[in-house]
Amino acid sequence: GDHPSLKGTLLTFDTISLETKNHTLVKRPQCPACGDSHYLGNRDPLPVLLESRKKTFTADGGHRCVTPEKTLKQYEHHISPIIGAVRGISKVSKLKSDLTPTYVAGHNFASMLDSLYFLRKHLRGRSAGKGQTDAQAKASALGEAIERYSGVFQGDEIRRKGSYNSMADVAIHPNACMLFSDRQYQSRQDWNQSCPSFFQKVPEPFDEQREIEWTPIWSLTDKTFKYLPTAYCYYGYPKPSKPDCWADSNGTAAGNTKEEAILQGFMELVERDSVALWWYNRLKRPAVDLESFNQPYFTALKEYYHSLNRELWVLDLTSDLGIPAFAALSRRIDQPVEDIIFAFGAHFDPKIGIMRSLTELNQMLPAVISIAPDGSTNYNYSDELATEWWGMATRENQPYLVPDENTTPKRYTDYHQLSSDDLRDDVQTCVDIAAKQGMETLVLDQTRPDIGLNVVKVIVPGLRHFWKRWAPGRLYDVPVQMGQLPKSLNENQLNPFPIFF
Questions:
Q1: Arithmetic mean of pLDDT, 1-14
Q2: Radius of gyration (C-alpha) of the chain in whole angstroms
Q3: Which of the residues 80, 297, 402, 409 has the least number of beta carbons within 10 Å of its own beta carbon?
Q4: Where are any strands of DSSP class E within 72-193?
């Protein structure tokens, strides 16, 4: 008969450990067999309407409506190796310091395609979480794992069929977002064969006459729906024989509210854009005076890295957008091979931007922390580009990694405070900043009814990814406009080594 304690619960028994565990069974309102009719069949897309959301937590990771502890309590029932959207969360044990709490969660579907070979060779199996505190790092890992889960194509998404040419009045060309150059398309076969990383591969040129499925996305700028190829919007969308676009996680974020998620997603776009301008143009950027921020964590982390025979420094990467952006870097100082690692962050609050770059750097640290008896590094990272970089790059042969000695280090008082006490107002500030540079801010709501945690993909055509995508535009123009270069570089002069994560 019925047992009240088992309602909505799956009970498992481990025959080896003799342990029993309860797993929360989550009803799927979008189930085609037993779901709510509201989610079934043809339905109209809903606009993304912003609401006032007062901030209550601004100490770590970003500006939030609730604390990370409350986020964990509300959504941790989705963690289950049997029926959960997230298989499990575990702490990275290689980092012994309380300063570097890092968690991983499985699975990460950020680049899933329908190829078994791809799943085996290229699918990252885990999401990572960072933070200054244990709770923030764990909530970050859970949020990223749910973010990836929510972005996987399930088949019940709202779509519209047509060709780009037939929808040109509302459709956005995918290469306005991907930004591959004509030369990259022309040489894609040779490049793709030699490139070890899927994330750097170049798709087929987009066929503007082919009929495909398009996904509605809401323009916060124009207050109307635009359309992008569904293949660009969702991971794992069935690909054609010659795929001409695919999804990535750039600008995708989870949050306790839509406003919170949109702000996080926009900041990621700004971060990657700022990195691309610096990295591929190999610009000299000013150092950041961490002591001026009066943050004990910054000082303690530098001391911890020094105990590992590593130097740590932060560069200011703020671009024409005016939103503080940073690169945190670290190198070995006891061996000729420097194992340089780097990570990035951007935020209205420069303390948060720096904190995000530093805590993300902590995520990279386990890959280079294992030292062999002869002093060489046992790399805990399978990416060929990453290990090539660590074995090759030094401050001497990559001088753009070194602070500009002709510029005064940036202090806390140099940064204007752009944030408000309301997430809605911050999002509107983001939209206004993009519009001032002639760019449109678009949002795709990927929140799944069975999950509840808000997930959005923020898209600003024209902002650059930090992967190797070299179409004309900001990558070449902004360094000249900001006086960082006397004239634009050509494609042959850009940094040939791509960001590898």
A1: 79
A2: 23
A3: 402
A4: 88-91, 103-106, 127-129, 160-162
